[in-house]
Specification:
Layout lengths: L16 E2 L7 H13 L7 H14 L3 E3 L2 E2 L2 E4 L6 E13 L2 E12 L3 H14 L5 H6 L4 H11 L9 H4 L7 E2 L4 H9 L5 E5 L5 E6 H8 L2 H4 L11 H8 L16 E3 L4 H10 L4 E5 L5 E6 H9 L2
Parallel strand pairs: 1-5, 3-6, 4-6, 7-8, 10-11
Antiparallel strand pairs: 2-3, 5-6, 8-9, 11-12
Helix pairs in contact: 1-2
Amino acid sequence: MPEKLKNFYTYLSTENILCTTCGLNGQQLISSLINLVAKQSDSIDIANAVEEVEKREALFSTVIAPGLAVPHARISSIDKPLVAMACCPHGIDFYGQKVNIVVLLLTPLSEPNLHLQLMAALAKDFSEENAIKQVSKSANAEEVIEYFRSKEVVMVDYLTAKEVMRANVTTLLDSDSLLNAINTFSSTHAEEFPVIDKNGNLKGIVSLTDLLRHCLPEHMLWMEDLSGIYKMQPFAEMLKNACTTSIAKVMNQDFITVSEDVPAVQLAKLFLTDNIRCLIVINKEGKLSGIVKLKEFCAKFFWE
């Protein structure tokens, strides 16, 4: 008999849902939710679980959407996911941000795939506009479960590029000036950006390496004696013409794309075999859907 397809709410019992929560801050609510799930596991160390969740929160905010926080941790002592949820119709202060729903997610350390499957399913469950506000106003736990049941969002069998990519991507237009690219690089921590045309079609990638290559073309790289340009004349020349040089003249048109449904393990292979740090994800129409950066990919599986 085939295994029954699972939904997020499969792991969420009515006993672990708090409704009309108020008067608590994020830290207090996390402690309350961990104490709830601890009743289902003899092996969990409550103090350690609180410490692990707060440690993750200190590294990066777990507010994954406006009004929705998903504090989480991977615990070595548990053998199944432990999930609890609090609905806060009037909102609470969650480490400096106002949220209406807090979902605690504790997963076994040895099951990174299941952890990300649950996160992906949860994001889909709350993807509709006003869903977070609607669920936060639930009068009781049964109403919360009914909401999830009505959506029937089935957890994926395996992770794909769509589940691990970053969808909100800063892009540049191929008609933008080189100066615009420089300013964008300076105001972000990114090392490369996808380049699209006015219709949203993917045209290339521009990276910090491309900027350097534009200053020092290939013939200069073969020169052993660079004393003639010690004063960085090529860089000065590039900056002088940055306003009139378009990104299209600098960008790299030789890049790797993957479709949204490519298995995540295939991305790992590409990172290794092609020695790249960023993959471009495209949708069925061939347009930009998101990006997967090497560091962010590793973070999802190893420490987030």
